Amino acid sequence: MRGGSLHGVLLPVLVVLALALPLASAQPWPICGSNGNYTANSTYQANLKQLADELRKNVSSSLFAAGAVGSVPDAVYALAICRGDANASACADCVGTIFQDAQQLCAYDKEVSIVYDTCYLRFSNVNFLSSTDNSGLVNLYNGQNVTGEDIARYDRAVTGLLNATAGYAADNSSRRFATGELAGFSEQYPKIYAMEQCRPDLAPAQCRRCLDDLVGQLWQTFDRNTKGARSVGARCNIRFELYSFYTIPSMLKLQAEAVAPSPSSAPAGQPPAVPGTTQEKRRNGAGKILAIVMPIVAATLAATVIGFCLWRRRRPAKTPPPGPLRYASRSEEIESIDSLILDLSTLQIATDNFSENNKLGEGGFGVVYKGTLPYGQDIAVKRLSQSSLQGMGELKNELVLVAKLQHKNLVRLVGVCLEEHERMLVYEYMPNRSLDTILFDSEKSSLLDWGRRLKIINGVARGMQYLHEDSQLKIVHRDLKASNVLLDSDFNPKISDFGLARLFGGDQTQDVTNRVVGTYGYMAPEYAMRGHYSVKSDVFSFGVLILEIVTGKRNSGSYYSEQSGDLLSVIWEHWTTGTITEMVDRSMAGGASGREIARCIHVGLLCVQENPASRPTMSAVNVMLSSGTVSLQAASRPAFYIRKGGDGSTGTYSGGSFVGTLPSSGRSAPMSPNEVSITELEPR
Length: 684
What we know:
Layout: H1 10-17, E1 29-32, H2 43-62, E2 64-69, E3 76-82, H3 88-105, E4 112-115, E5 119-124, E6 138-141, H4 151-171, E7 177-183, E8 191-198, H5 204-216, H6 218-221, E9 229-232, E10 236-241, E11 252-255, H7 256-259, H8 278-314, H9 330-338, H10 344-350, E12 359-362, E13 366-372, E14 378-384, H11 389-402, E15 413-419, E16 422-428, H12 435-439, H13 450-470, E17 474-476, E18 485-487, E19 493-495, E20 502-504, E21 510-512, H14 525-530, E22 532-534, H15 535-551, H16 567-577, H17 594-607, H18 618-626, E23 641-644, E24 650-654, E25 657-658, E26 661-662, E27 667-668
Parallel strand pairs: 7-11
Antiparallel strand pairs: 1-4, 2-3, 3-5, 4-5, 6-9, 7-8, 8-10, 9-10, 12-13, 13-14, 14-16, 15-16, 17-20, 18-19, 21-22, 23-24, 24-25, 26-27
Helix pairs in contact: 2-3, 4-5, 8-9, 13-15, 13-18, 15-17
């Protein structure tokens, strides 16, 4: 079976193999590549035979072997991995057979991926062994469907089991292998089984990322009601079924109510939950959510009614701007929250009872702690301060919003705890903390060479494009800054902190608020002074972030400054005089590309222009960053430009208007420093 590319043939393979999954383990499932062919008795074929013999001998020790033989253009790269529950003899036999079958089923193809029930093989004339991509992916599914069940609950159950098993495989096993089962889903389907595995030479964080990517794409790849499916690639693989398909006891055992609780409201005539049981505990959890959500809804509704009545006395009727998450129904919000509930006792154990030694940081919201869940996953627990009234609304906003967003450059929500007056959000743990803790530290900043900085810029840009354009929701973050960009073990960026985010619906492009919140230095002028926010105000923040990453300097945001100027004005002066290289962070190691750096600065300046319409969209930003051939338009002066007067004094201008004086009061208002995240002003 052939196609335009290795991934391009997946769909026909899925169709042909849809009914084949339950067959005997001797059934091979191949995908033939498109990297050309070799001829009989050629050097490539000789190298392939030599590599097959070597892998068959080496695979017995760890159920995994990889290697390369020959030189370009006859080089062959190959990898073989057996299921973690296979014995050494069966593994070696499977690898020997699968090499033979691969050459018969994909005759003379230089690239083949093939799956047996016991082992997986990939060989190619392209070196995929050092790649971070899970290449050679083979997707298979069970042709039978789940019937008579709540499919949304079934999806949550499967996803929850796979997530838990992924954590166990990545962190608790040197073999990077785990099996798991989820009991009590329904009478018809009492158990769901899962198996996940990575190459054993991957680090825990690399393994977890690979498995997370597969789980995250699960329901985009397969029908949501399939009884079983598997995705097998060169770096990791996952599988789930409604029957036990492995030969060892399950390493991880979960209850369905823990990851996919039944509806909290029982049908009429159903007996009440027995006290102390899991059913009663889940109902109580849903009741606590209602206790939080409904007062907020009631208060919001009351405030809206009162405000609307007062407003109508002064103005003709107009369609009111949508509030946060207006387009999500309350029942949907509660359901999505309920599926993420974690017990307080679990988080107490995970954080050593919120020990000071596990404290990661503290902000207006409360304290963040590091923890480790029972199956080994590291987490960051964001604990709402008891006295933070403002944080409660932001907690709910962030919870409901982040639960709906899935992207590799957005921090992933693991769960929520709403128990005994505690209000906590639980996120995946980022080992390298936030960008600002490294970028602005004179000793640590050298860790960020140009390659890493460019990866951070591109990753944040992709994440912001997803929020603005590619997700089903249109999200304005409103607080993008260096401290809200978290870094994983490989310095991949994850955008965090959606407490201030706002949802736009339909064709809406902007909104106005009478409560300006965010971080000065990153806030667009139309938002800081008039309360106007849009995706273009996020673009402004992103532009500031680019310029900070390139220079290693904070944007002071000092609109009333005794300094010679803030970061934007200094960069603009160097840009116009052709001395921009003087602004580049000297702590970056060698290897930085002058053209790439100049292009990033140029894109940053385009993003911080005063007129929102002149700023590019995030999709345009990604095109400009990824292509060195796309021409860039000339940038205009940054929105906040501090210009020296003839007497050496400084004045802050935005398009000729003095910025910082609020016409409603006629007073100059001091701006909060960059570290402050939430500040309220009264705009005009």
